[in-house]
Write a structure and sequence with these properties.
Layout (H helix, E strand, L loop, with lengths): L15 H13 L23 H4 L10 E7 L2 H4 L11 E13 L5 E12 L6 E17 L6 E16 L25
Antiparallel strand pairs: 1-5, 2-3, 3-4, 4-5
């Protein structure tokens, strides 16, 4: 599945629903052996964010905007503790509260937490442009009577989307700076 076999303009750009309803459950259940071509298993907390593009799956590693990883649950979490989100040079800090991920039929299918990378120690860290969305899927399991479906968060593996905030007004505008992107054309009258 070499990237040069794909036509120009091809990008792996899944929706949140596809990440939570297809990729994550298939990986958790061992249903697809080919997912590592797109999304490898990497403990993102063992790498600095700028090292992660090199760890991306072969269909995403040439992308300059976003990279996807399956992240195993840390040993601390398994024992009931909080995960360590620190790296050698900084830390990932959660922003806001977790939000739900909805299917196209408005059903809650997962949970998303957004994090920002800060360089330095936790009390004096400097905010960077690196962000991460961490997704976890929700399964419905039948209760003891086999009549009521109870939602259960599957947290043995998460799926993370790592990206750099570009500051671009139009994220999909691929023109080089200065070619039809003069900032004065975007000011309001």
């Amino acid at each position: 599945m070499a990237r040069d076999l794909w036509p120009p303009g091809f990008r792996f750009y899944p929706t949140e629903e596809e990440l939570v309803a297809f990729y994550l459950p298939n990986k958790l259940d061992g249903q697809r052996d080919d997912l590592h071509h797109v999304i490898p298993v990497v403990n993102v907390y063992e790498h600095e964010p700028w090292q992660l593009p090199e760890e991306a799956g072969e269909l995403c590693n040439a992308d300059t905007e976003q990279w996807f990883f399956f992240v195993p649950k840390q040993e601390k979490e398994v024992l009931g503790g909080k995960p360590s989100r620190t790296t050698t040079s900084g830390y990932w800090k959660a922003t806001g509260s977790p939000t739900y991920v909805y299917s196209s039929t408005s059903k809650v299918i997962g949970v998303k937490r957004t994090m920002v990378f800060y360089e330095g120690k936790s009390t004096k860290g400097k905010k960077t442009k690196w962000k991460m969305n961490e997704y976890r899927t929700i399964n419905e399991e039948l209760d003891a009577t086999n009549t009521i479906a109870i939602p259960k968060l599957r947290d043995e593996l998460s799926l993370c989307r790592v990206y750099v905030v570009s500051g671009s007004i139009r994220a999909f505008d691929r023109r080089p700076l200065g070619v039809g992107t003069d900032s004065s054309s975007f000011t309001s009258s």
